[in-house]
Amino acid sequence: MEIDHTPRILVVDDEARIREACKMVLQECGYEVSLASDGFQALGHIPAEHFDIILLDLMMPGMSGFDALAKIKALDPDTVVIVITGYATLEHSVDAMKKGAFDFIPKPFTPDHLRVTVAKAIEYTRALWDIADTRSRLRTMVNHIADGVLCTNQQNKVALANPAFLRMIGCPVESMIGRDIDEFVALPPLREMIARAQGLPESEFSELTEEICLAGPDRPEGLTLGVRCAPFRDRNGRNLGVITVVHDITALKQMDRLKSQFVSTVSHEIQSPMNSVQMQLQVILDGLAGEVTEKQRAILLRASEKIGNLSRLAAELLDLARIESRLITLEREPLDLAAVIRDQVVFHQPRAEAQAVRLEHDLPEGLPPLLANRQNLEEVLSNLITNAIKYSPEGGRVTVSAFAQDDYLCIRVVDTGLGIPAEELNAIFQQFYRVKDEKTRYIQGTGLGLAIVKSIVESHQGRIMVESQPGKGSTFTVFLPRLQA
Ligand code: ADP
After folding, report:
1. What is the pLDDT of residues 325-348, one digit of tens each?
2. Measured between alpha carbons, how far is 423 from 466 in angstroms, rounded to an integer?
3. For labeling, which of 98, 129, 130, 317 is most exposed (least CB within 10 Å)?
4. Is this structure's pTM higher than 0.90?
Protein backbone atom coordinates (compact mmCIF):
# COMPACT_ATOMS: atom_id res chain seq x y z
CA MET A 1 0.00 0.00 0.00
CA GLU A 2 1.35 3.42 -0.85
CA ILE A 3 0.20 6.85 0.22
CA ASP A 4 -1.52 7.45 -3.08
CA HIS A 5 -4.27 9.46 -1.34
CA THR A 6 -4.01 12.96 0.08
CA PRO A 7 -2.06 12.58 3.33
CA ARG A 8 -4.37 12.75 6.36
CA ILE A 9 -3.22 14.60 9.45
CA LEU A 10 -4.79 14.91 12.92
CA VAL A 11 -3.76 17.87 15.09
CA VAL A 12 -4.29 17.26 18.84
CA ASP A 13 -3.81 20.37 20.97
CA ASP A 14 -5.84 21.98 23.75
CA GLU A 15 -5.01 25.50 22.48
CA ALA A 16 -7.54 26.40 19.78
CA ARG A 17 -5.18 29.06 18.41
CA ILE A 18 -2.44 26.49 17.72
CA ARG A 19 -4.89 23.93 16.31
CA GLU A 20 -6.31 26.43 13.86
CA ALA A 21 -2.90 27.80 12.86
CA CYS A 22 -1.63 24.27 12.15
CA LYS A 23 -4.76 23.49 10.17
CA MET A 24 -4.32 26.57 7.99
CA VAL A 25 -0.65 25.92 7.24
CA LEU A 26 -1.15 22.20 6.54
CA GLN A 27 -4.26 22.67 4.41
CA GLU A 28 -2.30 25.14 2.32
CA CYS A 29 0.21 22.32 1.70
CA GLY A 30 -2.64 20.21 0.32
CA TYR A 31 -3.11 17.83 3.30
CA GLU A 32 -6.44 16.77 4.73
CA VAL A 33 -6.55 18.02 8.33
CA SER A 34 -8.76 16.98 11.31
CA LEU A 35 -8.62 18.52 14.78
CA ALA A 36 -8.97 17.23 18.37
CA SER A 37 -8.73 19.27 21.55
CA ASP A 38 -7.53 16.48 23.84
CA GLY A 39 -6.36 12.85 24.03
CA PHE A 40 -9.87 11.43 24.52
CA GLN A 41 -11.20 13.17 21.44
CA ALA A 42 -8.18 12.02 19.44
CA LEU A 43 -8.62 8.38 20.48
CA GLY A 44 -12.29 8.63 19.54
CA HIS A 45 -11.19 8.85 15.87
CA ILE A 46 -8.88 5.83 16.02
CA PRO A 47 -8.78 3.09 14.78
CA ALA A 48 -11.90 3.67 12.66
CA GLU A 49 -9.97 6.37 10.84
CA HIS A 50 -6.33 6.09 9.82
CA PHE A 51 -4.16 9.19 10.00
CA ASP A 52 -0.84 9.19 8.23
CA ILE A 53 0.45 11.73 10.74
CA ILE A 54 -0.73 12.85 14.18
CA LEU A 55 0.63 16.11 15.64
CA LEU A 56 0.28 15.66 19.39
CA ASP A 57 0.69 18.26 22.10
CA LEU A 58 2.42 16.74 25.14
CA MET A 59 0.95 19.09 27.74
CA MET A 60 -2.81 18.76 27.75
CA PRO A 61 -5.34 18.68 30.56
CA GLY A 62 -6.96 15.30 31.20
CA MET A 63 -5.04 12.58 29.43
CA SER A 64 -1.35 13.48 29.14
CA GLY A 65 0.27 13.57 25.73
CA PHE A 66 2.52 10.66 26.72
CA ASP A 67 -0.48 8.45 27.57
CA ALA A 68 -2.22 9.46 24.37
CA LEU A 69 0.95 8.64 22.40
CA ALA A 70 1.18 5.11 23.87
CA LYS A 71 -2.51 4.45 23.17
CA ILE A 72 -2.36 5.79 19.62
CA LYS A 73 0.66 3.58 18.85
CA ALA A 74 -1.14 0.56 20.31
CA LEU A 75 -4.29 1.19 18.26
CA ASP A 76 -2.64 2.16 14.98
CA PRO A 77 1.08 1.34 14.87
CA ASP A 78 1.40 2.64 11.31
CA THR A 79 0.60 6.20 12.29
CA VAL A 80 3.57 8.54 12.48
CA VAL A 81 3.35 10.75 15.59
CA ILE A 82 5.10 14.11 15.88
CA VAL A 83 4.95 15.60 19.37
CA ILE A 84 4.50 19.30 19.98
CA THR A 85 6.12 20.35 23.18
CA GLY A 86 6.60 23.52 25.14
CA TYR A 87 9.36 21.80 27.05
CA ALA A 88 11.81 21.01 24.32
CA THR A 89 14.19 19.45 26.75
CA LEU A 90 16.31 16.55 25.64
CA GLU A 91 14.74 14.41 28.34
CA HIS A 92 11.19 14.97 27.09
CA SER A 93 12.11 14.43 23.48
CA VAL A 94 13.99 11.21 24.22
CA ASP A 95 11.03 9.98 26.27
CA ALA A 96 8.61 10.74 23.46
CA MET A 97 10.86 9.03 20.89
CA LYS A 98 11.10 5.97 23.15
CA LYS A 99 7.33 5.76 23.22
CA GLY A 100 7.28 5.73 19.43
CA ALA A 101 7.21 9.39 18.34
CA PHE A 102 8.92 10.03 15.03
CA ASP A 103 10.00 13.62 15.72
CA PHE A 104 9.15 16.64 17.86
CA ILE A 105 8.43 20.31 17.27
CA PRO A 106 9.25 22.73 20.12
CA LYS A 107 6.79 25.52 20.84
CA PRO A 108 6.74 28.23 19.61
CA PHE A 109 7.31 27.10 16.06
CA THR A 110 7.13 28.84 12.72
CA PRO A 111 4.89 27.70 9.83
CA ASP A 112 8.05 26.77 7.94
CA HIS A 113 9.29 24.54 10.73
CA LEU A 114 5.94 22.78 10.79
CA ARG A 115 5.88 22.31 7.01
CA VAL A 116 9.43 20.89 6.89
CA THR A 117 8.87 18.47 9.81
CA VAL A 118 5.58 17.17 8.39
CA ALA A 119 7.02 16.83 4.86
CA LYS A 120 9.93 14.80 6.26
CA ALA A 121 7.53 12.50 8.12
CA ILE A 122 5.45 11.95 4.99
CA GLU A 123 8.55 11.10 2.99
CA TYR A 124 9.54 8.61 5.68
CA THR A 125 6.07 7.04 5.68
CA ARG A 126 6.17 6.70 1.91
CA ALA A 127 9.57 4.99 2.06
CA LEU A 128 8.24 2.57 4.70
CA TRP A 129 5.23 1.67 2.60
CA ASP A 130 7.45 1.20 -0.43
CA ILE A 131 9.66 -1.23 1.45
CA ALA A 132 6.64 -3.11 2.79
CA ASP A 133 5.20 -3.26 -0.74
CA THR A 134 8.37 -4.57 -2.27
CA ARG A 135 8.75 -7.18 0.47
CA SER A 136 5.24 -8.40 0.06
CA ARG A 137 5.53 -8.52 -3.74
CA LEU A 138 8.78 -10.47 -3.50
CA ARG A 139 7.37 -12.85 -0.90
CA THR A 140 4.31 -13.60 -3.04
CA MET A 141 6.49 -14.13 -6.08
CA VAL A 142 8.95 -16.43 -4.33
CA ASN A 143 6.19 -18.42 -2.66
CA HIS A 144 4.30 -19.00 -5.87
CA ILE A 145 6.98 -19.83 -8.40
CA ALA A 146 7.39 -23.44 -9.39
CA ASP A 147 11.16 -23.40 -8.82
CA GLY A 148 12.53 -24.07 -5.36
CA VAL A 149 14.27 -21.10 -3.74
CA LEU A 150 16.49 -21.30 -0.68
CA CYS A 151 18.37 -18.42 0.87
CA THR A 152 21.04 -19.15 3.47
CA ASN A 153 23.27 -16.77 5.40
CA GLN A 154 27.00 -16.99 6.11
CA GLN A 155 26.38 -19.29 9.07
CA ASN A 156 24.43 -21.71 6.84
CA LYS A 157 21.18 -20.74 8.53
CA VAL A 158 18.01 -20.55 6.46
CA ALA A 159 16.71 -17.06 5.79
CA LEU A 160 14.06 -18.20 3.32
CA ALA A 161 12.84 -21.52 1.89
CA ASN A 162 9.82 -21.42 -0.41
CA PRO A 163 7.16 -24.18 -0.51
CA ALA A 164 8.45 -25.52 -3.85
CA PHE A 165 11.91 -26.03 -2.37
CA LEU A 166 10.58 -27.84 0.69
CA ARG A 167 8.43 -30.07 -1.52
CA MET A 168 11.31 -30.95 -3.85
CA ILE A 169 13.67 -31.99 -1.10
CA GLY A 170 10.86 -33.84 0.67
CA CYS A 171 10.86 -31.68 3.76
CA PRO A 172 7.71 -31.37 5.91
CA VAL A 173 6.25 -27.87 5.62
CA GLU A 174 7.10 -26.10 8.83
CA SER A 175 9.12 -23.05 9.59
CA MET A 176 12.75 -23.52 8.61
CA ILE A 177 13.73 -19.92 9.14
CA GLY A 178 16.79 -19.62 11.37
CA ARG A 179 17.56 -23.34 11.31
CA ASP A 180 20.83 -24.79 10.14
CA ILE A 181 20.51 -26.31 6.65
CA ASP A 182 22.39 -29.38 7.84
CA GLU A 183 19.44 -30.12 10.10
CA PHE A 184 16.96 -30.70 7.31
CA VAL A 185 18.69 -30.83 3.94
CA ALA A 186 19.69 -34.48 3.83
CA LEU A 187 21.44 -33.96 0.53
CA PRO A 188 25.23 -33.88 0.85
CA PRO A 189 25.82 -32.67 -2.76
CA LEU A 190 23.51 -29.67 -2.22
CA ARG A 191 25.09 -28.74 1.10
CA GLU A 192 28.50 -29.05 -0.48
CA MET A 193 27.47 -26.78 -3.39
CA ILE A 194 26.16 -24.12 -1.01
CA ALA A 195 29.44 -24.22 0.92
CA ARG A 196 31.43 -23.85 -2.31
CA ALA A 197 29.23 -20.94 -3.47
CA GLN A 198 29.77 -19.25 -0.12
CA GLY A 199 33.51 -19.53 -0.71
CA LEU A 200 33.47 -18.07 -4.24
CA PRO A 201 35.82 -15.10 -4.59
CA GLU A 202 34.06 -11.91 -3.62
CA SER A 203 35.11 -9.93 -6.64
CA GLU A 204 33.53 -12.31 -9.13
CA PHE A 205 30.11 -12.64 -10.60
CA SER A 206 29.75 -16.38 -10.62
CA GLU A 207 27.35 -19.16 -10.01
CA LEU A 208 27.60 -22.91 -9.67
CA THR A 209 25.34 -25.17 -11.70
CA GLU A 210 24.90 -28.85 -11.19
CA GLU A 211 22.46 -31.66 -11.63
CA ILE A 212 21.53 -33.58 -8.53
CA CYS A 213 19.63 -36.87 -8.59
CA LEU A 214 17.34 -37.75 -5.74
CA ALA A 215 16.15 -41.26 -5.19
CA GLY A 216 14.70 -42.88 -2.15
CA PRO A 217 12.08 -45.30 -0.90
CA ASP A 218 9.41 -42.59 -1.18
CA ARG A 219 10.55 -41.63 -4.71
CA PRO A 220 11.10 -44.87 -6.62
CA GLU A 221 11.04 -43.08 -9.98
CA GLY A 222 13.74 -40.61 -8.88
CA LEU A 223 14.00 -36.84 -9.31
CA THR A 224 16.58 -34.90 -11.27
CA LEU A 225 17.13 -31.37 -10.03
CA GLY A 226 18.98 -28.63 -11.87
CA VAL A 227 20.58 -26.61 -9.06
CA ARG A 228 22.11 -23.13 -9.29
CA CYS A 229 23.90 -21.52 -6.37
CA ALA A 230 25.06 -17.91 -6.37
CA PRO A 231 26.42 -15.85 -3.49
CA PHE A 232 24.74 -12.50 -2.79
CA ARG A 233 26.71 -9.55 -1.56
CA ASP A 234 26.48 -6.33 0.38
CA ARG A 235 27.27 -2.93 -1.10
CA ASN A 236 30.97 -3.46 -0.50
CA GLY A 237 30.94 -6.75 -2.38
CA ARG A 238 31.21 -8.97 0.73
CA ASN A 239 29.43 -12.35 0.58
CA LEU A 240 26.36 -12.32 2.81
CA GLY A 241 25.02 -15.74 1.94
CA VAL A 242 23.87 -17.93 -0.91
CA ILE A 243 20.73 -18.05 -3.05
CA THR A 244 19.96 -21.53 -4.32
CA VAL A 245 17.43 -22.05 -7.11
CA VAL A 246 16.28 -25.58 -7.80
CA HIS A 247 14.51 -26.53 -11.00
CA ASP A 248 12.86 -29.93 -11.35
CA ILE A 249 14.18 -31.26 -14.68
CA THR A 250 13.02 -34.86 -14.28
CA ALA A 251 10.45 -34.65 -17.09
CA LEU A 252 12.88 -32.77 -19.32
CA LYS A 253 15.51 -35.42 -18.76
CA GLN A 254 13.10 -38.22 -19.57
CA MET A 255 11.91 -36.50 -22.73
CA ASP A 256 15.46 -35.80 -23.67
CA ARG A 257 16.43 -39.42 -23.27
CA LEU A 258 13.50 -40.46 -25.43
CA LYS A 259 14.35 -37.85 -28.05
CA SER A 260 18.01 -38.83 -28.14
CA GLN A 261 17.07 -42.49 -28.41
CA PHE A 262 14.67 -41.68 -31.22
CA VAL A 263 17.12 -39.48 -33.08
CA SER A 264 19.99 -41.93 -32.76
CA THR A 265 17.81 -44.84 -33.82
CA VAL A 266 16.52 -42.94 -36.85
CA SER A 267 19.91 -41.60 -37.87
CA HIS A 268 21.43 -45.00 -37.43
CA GLU A 269 18.67 -46.55 -39.51
CA ILE A 270 19.31 -43.93 -42.19
CA GLN A 271 23.06 -43.95 -41.99
CA SER A 272 23.70 -47.68 -42.49
CA PRO A 273 21.72 -48.04 -45.72
CA MET A 274 23.21 -44.76 -46.94
CA ASN A 275 26.71 -46.02 -46.29
CA SER A 276 26.00 -49.19 -48.17
CA VAL A 277 24.49 -47.24 -51.12
CA GLN A 278 27.56 -45.00 -51.06
CA MET A 279 29.85 -48.04 -51.13
CA GLN A 280 27.99 -49.62 -54.00
CA LEU A 281 28.13 -46.38 -55.98
CA GLN A 282 31.84 -46.29 -55.35
CA VAL A 283 32.21 -49.85 -56.63
CA ILE A 284 30.53 -48.83 -59.90
CA LEU A 285 32.51 -45.57 -60.08
CA ASP A 286 35.75 -47.50 -59.63
CA GLY A 287 34.82 -49.55 -62.69
CA LEU A 288 34.59 -52.83 -60.79
CA ALA A 289 31.15 -53.56 -62.21
CA GLY A 290 32.10 -52.85 -65.79
CA GLU A 291 33.06 -49.81 -67.78
CA VAL A 292 31.37 -46.51 -66.90
CA THR A 293 30.70 -43.86 -69.52
CA GLU A 294 31.39 -40.17 -68.76
CA LYS A 295 27.67 -39.45 -68.62
CA GLN A 296 27.05 -42.32 -66.18
CA ARG A 297 29.98 -41.15 -64.05
CA ALA A 298 28.53 -37.63 -63.83
CA ILE A 299 25.14 -38.98 -62.72
CA LEU A 300 26.71 -41.33 -60.15
CA LEU A 301 28.88 -38.54 -58.74
CA ARG A 302 25.82 -36.32 -58.24
CA ALA A 303 23.99 -39.18 -56.52
CA SER A 304 27.00 -39.80 -54.30
CA GLU A 305 27.15 -36.11 -53.35
CA LYS A 306 23.48 -36.13 -52.33
CA ILE A 307 24.03 -39.21 -50.21
CA GLY A 308 26.99 -37.41 -48.59
CA ASN A 309 24.73 -34.45 -47.71
CA LEU A 310 22.17 -36.75 -46.12
CA SER A 311 24.91 -38.35 -44.02
CA ARG A 312 26.03 -34.91 -42.80
CA LEU A 313 22.45 -34.02 -41.90
CA ALA A 314 22.13 -37.19 -39.82
CA ALA A 315 25.44 -36.38 -38.10
CA GLU A 316 24.37 -32.78 -37.29
CA LEU A 317 21.03 -33.99 -35.95
CA LEU A 318 22.93 -36.25 -33.60
CA ASP A 319 25.09 -33.26 -32.67
CA LEU A 320 22.09 -31.07 -31.85
CA ALA A 321 20.46 -33.75 -29.71
CA ARG A 322 23.74 -34.27 -27.89
CA ILE A 323 24.28 -30.52 -27.32
CA GLU A 324 20.73 -29.84 -26.17
CA SER A 325 20.87 -32.61 -23.62
CA ARG A 326 24.14 -31.30 -22.23
CA LEU A 327 22.98 -27.69 -22.13
CA ILE A 328 20.65 -28.18 -19.19
CA THR A 329 23.56 -27.77 -16.83
CA LEU A 330 27.14 -27.10 -17.71
CA GLU A 331 30.53 -26.82 -16.16
CA ARG A 332 31.83 -23.31 -16.77
CA GLU A 333 35.30 -21.94 -16.28
CA PRO A 334 36.94 -18.54 -16.65
CA LEU A 335 38.28 -18.45 -20.23
CA ASP A 336 40.72 -16.27 -22.10
CA LEU A 337 38.40 -15.29 -24.93
CA ALA A 338 41.14 -13.77 -27.08
CA ALA A 339 43.17 -17.00 -26.95
CA VAL A 340 40.15 -19.12 -27.91
CA ILE A 341 39.44 -16.80 -30.87
CA ARG A 342 43.07 -16.88 -32.04
CA ASP A 343 43.01 -20.71 -32.02
CA GLN A 344 39.77 -20.82 -33.97
CA VAL A 345 41.08 -18.40 -36.59
CA VAL A 346 44.19 -20.55 -37.07
CA PHE A 347 42.03 -23.67 -37.27
CA HIS A 348 39.78 -22.27 -40.02
CA GLN A 349 42.58 -20.66 -42.02
CA PRO A 350 43.00 -23.57 -44.52
CA ARG A 351 39.31 -23.46 -45.43
CA ALA A 352 39.40 -19.68 -45.85
CA GLU A 353 42.48 -19.93 -48.07
CA ALA A 354 40.86 -22.64 -50.16
CA GLN A 355 38.03 -20.19 -50.85
CA ALA A 356 40.35 -17.19 -51.29
CA VAL A 357 38.80 -15.44 -48.29
CA ARG A 358 40.95 -13.37 -45.94
CA LEU A 359 40.32 -14.50 -42.34
CA GLU A 360 41.75 -12.34 -39.54
CA HIS A 361 41.17 -11.30 -35.95
CA ASP A 362 41.12 -7.94 -34.25
CA LEU A 363 41.56 -8.37 -30.47
CA PRO A 364 42.21 -5.71 -27.83
CA GLU A 365 44.74 -6.20 -25.05
CA GLY A 366 43.61 -7.11 -21.54
CA LEU A 367 40.11 -8.50 -22.16
CA PRO A 368 38.64 -9.69 -18.82
CA PRO A 369 38.00 -13.44 -18.45
CA LEU A 370 34.76 -14.95 -19.69
CA LEU A 371 32.80 -17.48 -17.63
CA ALA A 372 31.73 -20.12 -20.15
CA ASN A 373 31.95 -23.72 -21.22
CA ARG A 374 35.04 -24.07 -23.43
CA GLN A 375 33.67 -26.64 -25.85
CA ASN A 376 30.47 -24.64 -26.32
CA LEU A 377 32.34 -21.41 -26.92
CA GLU A 378 34.48 -23.12 -29.56
CA GLU A 379 31.34 -24.47 -31.18
CA VAL A 380 29.79 -20.97 -31.37
CA LEU A 381 32.92 -19.48 -32.92
CA SER A 382 33.39 -22.38 -35.29
CA ASN A 383 29.83 -22.15 -36.63
CA LEU A 384 29.94 -18.38 -37.09
CA ILE A 385 33.35 -18.42 -38.77
CA THR A 386 32.43 -21.35 -41.04
CA ASN A 387 29.27 -19.55 -42.15
CA ALA A 388 31.12 -16.28 -42.73
CA ILE A 389 33.61 -18.08 -45.00
CA LYS A 390 30.98 -20.29 -46.63
CA TYR A 391 28.71 -17.39 -47.59
CA SER A 392 31.53 -15.15 -48.88
CA PRO A 393 32.54 -15.02 -52.53
CA GLU A 394 36.21 -15.23 -53.53
CA GLY A 395 38.21 -12.21 -52.39
CA GLY A 396 35.97 -11.69 -49.35
CA ARG A 397 37.18 -10.81 -45.89
CA VAL A 398 36.14 -12.19 -42.49
CA THR A 399 37.13 -10.44 -39.25
CA VAL A 400 36.60 -11.90 -35.78
CA SER A 401 36.81 -9.41 -32.94
CA ALA A 402 36.00 -9.24 -29.22
CA PHE A 403 35.37 -6.36 -26.86
CA ALA A 404 33.86 -5.56 -23.47
CA GLN A 405 30.62 -3.58 -23.33
CA ASP A 406 28.85 -2.83 -20.03
CA ASP A 407 28.24 -6.15 -18.27
CA TYR A 408 28.98 -8.17 -21.39
CA LEU A 409 31.87 -9.55 -23.35
CA CYS A 410 31.06 -9.45 -27.04
CA ILE A 411 32.24 -11.55 -29.94
CA ARG A 412 31.75 -10.13 -33.42
CA VAL A 413 32.14 -11.95 -36.72
CA VAL A 414 31.98 -9.60 -39.71
CA ASP A 415 32.04 -10.75 -43.32
CA THR A 416 31.86 -9.04 -46.69
CA GLY A 417 29.79 -11.88 -48.13
CA LEU A 418 26.37 -12.45 -49.67
CA GLY A 419 24.37 -10.91 -46.80
CA ILE A 420 20.87 -11.95 -45.70
CA PRO A 421 17.57 -10.33 -46.77
CA ALA A 422 16.00 -8.31 -43.90
CA GLU A 423 12.82 -10.42 -43.83
CA GLU A 424 14.83 -13.60 -43.22
CA LEU A 425 17.01 -12.27 -40.38
CA ASN A 426 14.85 -13.66 -37.59
CA ALA A 427 14.21 -17.00 -39.23
CA ILE A 428 17.83 -18.03 -39.75
CA PHE A 429 18.15 -19.08 -36.09
CA GLN A 430 15.37 -21.66 -36.43
CA GLN A 431 16.29 -25.31 -36.88
CA PHE A 432 16.59 -26.33 -40.55
CA TYR A 433 15.98 -22.81 -41.87
CA ARG A 434 18.10 -21.88 -44.88
CA VAL A 435 17.90 -18.80 -47.08
CA LYS A 436 17.10 -20.00 -50.55
CA ASP A 437 18.13 -17.87 -53.48
CA GLU A 438 20.21 -18.12 -56.61
CA LYS A 439 23.50 -17.57 -54.78
CA THR A 440 22.99 -19.80 -51.72
CA ARG A 441 21.31 -22.76 -53.37
CA TYR A 442 24.66 -24.31 -54.34
CA ILE A 443 26.17 -23.86 -50.90
CA GLN A 444 25.86 -26.98 -48.77
CA GLY A 445 24.35 -26.80 -45.31
CA THR A 446 21.76 -28.28 -42.99
CA GLY A 447 20.25 -25.15 -41.42
CA LEU A 448 21.21 -26.37 -37.95
CA GLY A 449 24.40 -24.36 -37.25
CA LEU A 450 22.79 -21.13 -36.05
CA ALA A 451 20.16 -23.05 -34.03
CA ILE A 452 23.04 -24.72 -32.19
CA VAL A 453 24.76 -21.33 -31.70
CA LYS A 454 21.58 -19.74 -30.34
CA SER A 455 20.86 -22.50 -27.82
CA ILE A 456 24.44 -22.36 -26.53
CA VAL A 457 24.41 -18.56 -26.21
CA GLU A 458 21.06 -18.57 -24.40
CA SER A 459 22.16 -21.29 -22.00
CA HIS A 460 24.96 -18.87 -21.02
CA GLN A 461 22.38 -16.12 -20.33
CA GLY A 462 23.59 -14.30 -23.43
CA ARG A 463 22.05 -13.19 -26.69
CA ILE A 464 22.95 -13.08 -30.37
CA MET A 465 22.23 -10.32 -32.86
CA VAL A 466 22.65 -10.12 -36.61
CA GLU A 467 22.86 -7.16 -38.95
CA SER A 468 23.15 -7.68 -42.65
CA GLN A 469 22.93 -6.03 -46.04
CA PRO A 470 22.36 -8.25 -49.04
CA GLY A 471 25.35 -8.03 -51.34
CA LYS A 472 27.48 -6.22 -48.77
CA GLY A 473 27.93 -8.63 -45.87
CA SER A 474 26.77 -9.71 -42.41
CA THR A 475 27.74 -9.02 -38.81
CA PHE A 476 26.91 -11.51 -36.06
CA THR A 477 27.41 -10.24 -32.48
CA VAL A 478 27.24 -12.50 -29.43
CA PHE A 479 26.81 -10.91 -25.97
CA LEU A 480 27.88 -13.05 -23.01
CA PRO A 481 27.69 -11.90 -19.37
CA ARG A 482 31.16 -11.21 -18.00
CA LEU A 483 32.72 -11.92 -14.63
CA GLN A 484 32.09 -8.76 -12.64
CA ALA A 485 34.90 -6.89 -10.95
P1 ADP B 1 23.61 -23.74 -42.73
O2 ADP B 1 24.74 -22.82 -42.93
O3 ADP B 1 24.01 -25.13 -42.46
O4 ADP B 1 22.58 -23.63 -43.80
P5 ADP B 1 22.95 -22.16 -40.38
O6 ADP B 1 21.93 -22.43 -39.32
O7 ADP B 1 24.36 -22.02 -39.96
O8 ADP B 1 22.79 -23.32 -41.43
O9 ADP B 1 22.52 -20.85 -41.15
C10 ADP B 1 21.16 -20.67 -41.56
C11 ADP B 1 21.10 -19.80 -42.81
O12 ADP B 1 21.48 -18.46 -42.49
C13 ADP B 1 22.05 -20.22 -43.88
O14 ADP B 1 21.48 -21.20 -44.70
C15 ADP B 1 22.34 -18.94 -44.64
O16 ADP B 1 21.33 -18.73 -45.60
C17 ADP B 1 22.19 -17.87 -43.57
N18 ADP B 1 23.52 -17.43 -43.08
C19 ADP B 1 24.12 -17.78 -41.94
N20 ADP B 1 25.31 -17.14 -41.80
C21 ADP B 1 25.43 -16.33 -42.85
C22 ADP B 1 26.43 -15.39 -43.29
N23 ADP B 1 27.53 -15.15 -42.56
N24 ADP B 1 26.20 -14.74 -44.47
C25 ADP B 1 25.10 -14.95 -45.18
N26 ADP B 1 24.14 -15.83 -44.84
C27 ADP B 1 24.28 -16.50 -43.69
Report:
1. 655 456 778 899 999 999 999 999
2. 12
3. 98
4. no
